[in-house]
Amino acid sequence: MGAPPKPLKSRPxxxxxxxxxxxxxxxxxxxxxxxxxxDEFVRFRLGKLANTDGFEDGRVEDVDVKLFTRIVRxxxxxxxxxxxxxxxxxxxxxxxERLDPVLRALMRAGAAELWMPDGAPAKVVINEYLDVAHGFxxxxxxxxxxxxxxxxxxxxxxxxxxxx
Length: 164
Description:
The chain is mainly alpha-helical. The chain has a single domain (12-157), classed as NusB-like (N-utilizing Substance Protein B Homolog, Chain A, Orthogonal Bundle). It is 62% helix and 0% strand. It has helices spanning 12-30, 34-45, 65-77, 79-89, 101-115, 122-136, 141-156. Helix 1 packs across helix 2 (34-45), helix 1 crosses helix 5 and helix 2 (34-45) packs antiparallel against helix 3. The protein is globular, with a radius of gyration of 16 Å.
């Protein structure tokens, strides 16, 4: 008999990003404003429930609530700026309206984090959203998200890529 599996490392910042994608999806699909959705998530969808293994009914157990809130607020407040940036990086045959709504929410969340000058380093943000994309998609969507967020990071934070 082998050793018992190691417990999963806590990743509250990753949980925040997953929850932010879900919340942004919900704001778009349901038409609710960001503050209403943030409140709903904080009260009912974030944190561990007794006798569960996590991610049941969209629940995210391990979350940095401050980061989650900041991503959703920034993405919502800056959407009129973020969406044109994303559109400029998408090919003409893939307008933003054609994207899967979850992929659109993921790109908006990633763009919002890249928009924050005091946020995580761009490479960390890109890698995190690539991981999140792999959790939602099995096709080419993670690669598309990675490419768009990488190009956006170079636009918004060129200083992080100087000399690379």
